[in-house]
Amino acid sequence: MATIAMKFGGTSVADIERIRHVATLVKREVERGNKVAVVVSAMAGETNKLVAWTNDAARGINNLAIPDQREYDVVVAAGEQITSGLLAITLNAMGVKARSWAGWQVPINTSAVHGSARIEGVPATEMKRAIEGGEVAVVAGFQGVAPGVRISTLGRGGSDTSAVAVAAGIGAARCDIYTDVDGVYTTDPRIVPKARRLEKIAYEEMLEMASLGAKVLQTRSVEIAMLHRVPTRVLSTFTPDVGGTLLCDEEDIVEKKPVTGIAYSRDEAKITLHKVPDKPGVSAAIFGPLADAGVNVDMIVQNVSEDGETTDLTFTCTRGELTRALAAIETHAKDIRYRSVTHTADVAKVSIIGIGMRAHPGVAQLMFRTLAEKGINIEVISTSEIKVSVLIAEEYVELAVRALHSAYELDAA
Amino acid sequence: MATIAMKFGGTSVADIERIRHVATLVKREVERGNKVAVVVSAMAGETNKLVAWTNDAARGINNLAIPDQREYDVVVAAGEQITSGLLAITLNAMGVKARSWAGWQVPINTSAVHGSARIEGVPATEMKRAIEGGEVAVVAGFQGVAPGVRISTLGRGGSDTSAVAVAAGIGAARCDIYTDVDGVYTTDPRIVPKARRLEKIAYEEMLEMASLGAKVLQTRSVEIAMLHRVPTRVLSTFTPDVGGTLLCDEEDIVEKKPVTGIAYSRDEAKITLHKVPDKPGVSAAIFGPLADAGVNVDMIVQNVSEDGETTDLTFTCTRGELTRALAAIETHAKDIRYRSVTHTADVAKVSIIGIGMRAHPGVAQLMFRTLAEKGINIEVISTSEIKVSVLIAEEYVELAVRALHSAYELDAA
Predict the structure, then answer these.
(1) Boundary (domain end) residue, out of B160, B180, B200
(2) Quick check: B260 and B353 in contact, CB under 8 A?
(3) How far is B286 from chain A (nearest CA, A)?
(4) Is residue A118 part of a domain?
(5) Arithmetic mean of pLDDT, A51-72
(6) Residue B275 pLDDT > 80, yes or no?
(7) Which of A42, A167, A242, A294 allows an S-S link to A172, with CB 3.0 to 4.6 Å?
(8) With a CB-CB cutoff of 8 Å, which residues 78-97 of chain A face chain B?
């Protein structure tokens, strides 16, 4: 008998019939003797509808207006509230004692950054008592309560984070993330049909996979799982008895291949400043204004100076940030003193990830050779202890991912 | 400059365009120098959708199951939460500082009777401060917070009650109920085209009108308005500058006709117990079990005993309670000792209402004569100081209402 957290995403609760299926999965855990907290997203489609309403409400008045973020949260959070109530109704009708908990009731305390708030703590004293008393707690995901007792939301995908934070908050033995795929794969199976499901993946690896483009889990949820050492499983709502992937400590993984998985992201844009002065202080002149403009600079490369006086500097950010980045650079043109600026969004980032890299030298070399053999030019490189990322032309993404998947012997037999 | 409460129903906020219209009405009050709390219903159609989901969720499991009432409230209350956020977004985009307040945030404290909770108090300390600071408070109607910090709802039409209770709670000088009609009429204009809008109506009269079938305001909202002496206006969202009806003290009405209005209700059922013993204790034997079964007995008539030993007893309840009432009587047949029981739902109640009745004798007599002249049989009569109600066959409702409207000289010129 253990306390476990379960999480179901929007497609898993898309209609009443699916909510009923979710209820049977919850009931099964209760019948196994487990105590359960279940975290739910909004029914698929509901969030989009609510978001569209908030935009209409603001833009009808003024085409430039964006919705007041705190009120946006009030509207959008209603989606998960509805699902939590419906699942609790279904469970009670099945004879499983259950009650819903909105973010403010748990409480899931968050920062005041409405629309993309950060979970700061899940005291959950009363909810824990209810769970220990045998009642299933149905928690509205994606939401919390910000300072001033205002409703907040965590931003898209935040329900994963809610689930892991609730699991940590109630001291759950396990957090099961039910989704529409049956686990974490070596790479995106839509690109590489030979991709394999991983039985286990280390928290650190999953964190890199998620932040480098793998969409199966939200980055912040993996951070919390890692921080609180919550054993987290990814498994399919529709085939819950097969497969699944366990996020665990590095020590719990016996066979450590040099590369565990390959991630990619198309949400990349590249900006190059030509002929900037090659002297101290120029980086600060460039990246200070970008940070102020809320641009998250990712990869950076500075060319070797040819004339000893100027150099070219290239960096990447997300496509959504491109316009803001260019505006910030133009505004500070006098301080930066570049000759010209070029930019493109036709780039993508491909990354190899693996804790085994630490023990295997030459892992990056194989990546570069493999891409070279396919005639793919590497524009920027960035590395960390357990990953190597390269920026390439977007049109080569599939080719690159497939070639690397084979080169690192990840293909299924 | 005054603090006022405004209330908009579901048809007034049915889509974003209408919410925008509501925002302009709120803005106008702010520009007049007023401080405003605005109470909103769910967008027309939303509540029905949410209610249907709760029923599906419960019934899919077990055809007899009704949704857990506390979770029903969680789901349904989301409707008003959404509207409150959308109106706050619209107002902010218009440059009118506004924030939404859910029932639990105000707080609107209610009883624990989920699904039809009763407002017990609206402390609203913080909200009052925000309003005094010049911020429009957009309150989610129809909901509150029950003991145990659970979301509660007031039952259909509860947003009127929310509005008047909020007006009382913040000490508003006035409560304006915007709806799809432009005031309170002498009777239902769909039946009597010559019905006239009333400029003023006394709280007591409105209370009788509402509880006897007039649908323009919820009974409980009138009770609260009367109790706290909140001057309450009913006016049209779509033509806010014409007409309207003010609920006020009896003393503020100069011309007191004997009859102010005529109400009717088709939601009536009649049960007759034949040959019950005509002796003390029989009423208790009948009405005790009915009260236990949650049946609200309305009109009662006991015939004169013909044999000196038994009598016939007739009473009415709503059509929804008929089955429960018959079951309760059957269960207690031994104690009541009736010969037989008959029942019908083909009846309706027609009432004349007016504070002027107190000063004018013979008012009821005109009612009975008018109905007799039309050949309408009166089955049951009940009276109070300011109303006379009669039960008649349902098919005569329109005829009776029209005849009485003329007889009491209420027809528009």
Answers:
(1) B180
(2) yes
(3) 34
(4) yes
(5) 86
(6) yes
(7) A167
(8) 78-79, 81-82, 84-90, 92-94
Q: Is residue A355 predicted with pLDDT exceeding 80?
A: yes
Supply the range of the domain harboring residue B290.
262-407
What's the mean pLDDT in B160-176?
97
Q: Residue B90 is encoded by which pair of tokens?
A: 């619209």
The string of pLDDT tens digits covering residues B283-332 is 889 999 999 988 999 999 988 877 888 999 999 999 999 999 999 999 99
B161 & B304 share domain = no
Q: Is A55 a domain residue? A: yes
How many distinct structural domains can be found in chain A?
Answer: 2
Q: A175 and A270 share a domain?
A: no
Whether residues A286 and A168 fall in one domain = no
To test the contact with chain B by mutation, choose from A17, A20, A82 the residue with the greatest count of B C-beta atoms within 10 A, namely A82
Chain A residues within an 8 Å CB radius of B21: none
Token reading at B224:
């609260």
Residue B100 in contact with partner chain A when CB distance is under 8 A: yes
Please tell me the distance from the alpha carbon of residue B345 to that of residue B325, in angstroms, as a whole number: 13
Read off the CATH number of the domain in which A160 is found: 3.40.1160.10
> Could you report the per-residue pLDDT of A303-315, keeping only the tens digit for each?
877 788 899 999 9
Structure ipTM: 0.86
Q: Mean pLDDT score of chain A, rounded to an integer?
A: 94
Q: Does A57 touch chain B (CB under 8 A)?
A: yes
Share of residues in chain B with pLDDT > 90 (%) = 85
**Residue B197 phi, psi (nearest 5):** -75, 140
Flag whether pLDDT at B64 surpasses 80: no
Cβ–Cβ contact A2 with B under 8 A: no
Q: How far apart are CA A305 and CA A29, in angstroms?
A: 63
Q: Do B12 and B146 belong to one domain?
A: yes
User: Residue range B10-18: average pLDDT?
Assistant: 96
- Which residue is it, tokens 């408070």? B137
Alpha carbon distance A221, B317 (integer Å): 57
**Same domain for A283 and A159?**
no
Is A52 domain-assigned?
Answer: yes
Query: Which candidate, B170, B149, B148, places its Cα nearest to that of B104?
Result: B149
Of B16, B78, B86, the CB nearest to A82: B78
Cα distance from B328 to chain A (closest Cα, Å)? 27
Q: Please list the residues that pair with A100 across neighbouring strands.
A: A138
Inside any domain, residue A146:
yes
- Tell me how close the Cα of A56 comes to any Cα of chain B, in angstroms: 7
Is B277 in a helix, a strand, or coil?
strand
